[in-house]
Amino acid sequence: MSIISTIEELEELYGKPGEGELIKEVGHITEHYRKLIEVSPFMILATSGPEGLDCSPRGDEPGFVRVVDDQTLIFPDRRGNKRKDSLKNIIRDNRVAVLFLIPGVGVTLRVIGKAHISIDSELLQSFAVGDKLPRSAIVIRVESVYFQCARAIVRSNLWDPKRHISAQSLPSAGEILAALSNNKYGGERYDLEWPERASKTLW
Asked: Please, are residues 127 and 137 in contact by the beta-carbon 8 Å criterion?
């Protein structure tokens, strides 16, 4: 197998980025980048810690990631699976990366910075949905913002309804859990109870 093992080999293979690829990376949230963040209902949070890497999906109503100023983002950490992988990583290594997706739009937005976890009561209250508060809020001090072109979205046809996959054609969560636990957990009952369980624990 031929392996690229030096930066020089990599540069020779791919070439150097053009001027446009460099000027779109800035150290703060511009007004245009703010608009992309404020309409995104979904992002992927990447963290690193002693046990390794984590990549976690986060979704909510558009605008759930709050742009406080051109260097600060805050988003709620709502109920989940209690593994706390991302949160444990942030405590021990505060470097984070976030990728925002916008349904129907090809451009994605990458943000890199340093994060901390806040349980300030007023802040959590500001993210309440009805009487449900998030467990905590993640505050990111922005260091780099960069929009990425639409090639990946175009190649994947991600937003094309004709390319959507039927969930019935794939293993269900219950089936996966049953297989991994030798039928001690999961199964058909798990799948049947999931909609009601999700409605009670969504926030």
From this structure: yes
- Long-range pairs, 181-190, Cβ under 8 A, ≥24: none
- In 3D space, the residue among 46, 14, 36 whose CA is nearest the CA of residue 148 turns out to be 36
- Looking at residue 202, its pLDDT comes to 84
> What is the rounded distance in angstroms from the CA atom of residue 145 to the CA atom of residue 35?
13
pLDDT digits (tens, 9 = 90+) for 72-106: 999 999 988 888 999 999 999 999 999 999 999 99
The backbone torsions φ and ψ at residue 195, rounded to the nearest 5 degrees and listed phi first, read -55, -45
- Strand partners of residue 55: 46
The segment(s) of the chain belonging to CATH 2.30.110.10 are: 19-156
Residue 152, helix vs strand vs coil: helix
Q: Which is nearest to 54 in space by CA: 139, 104, 115?
A: 115
Q: 3.40.50.920, 2.70.70.10, 3.30.1050.10, 2.30.110.10: which CATH number matches 19-156?
A: 2.30.110.10
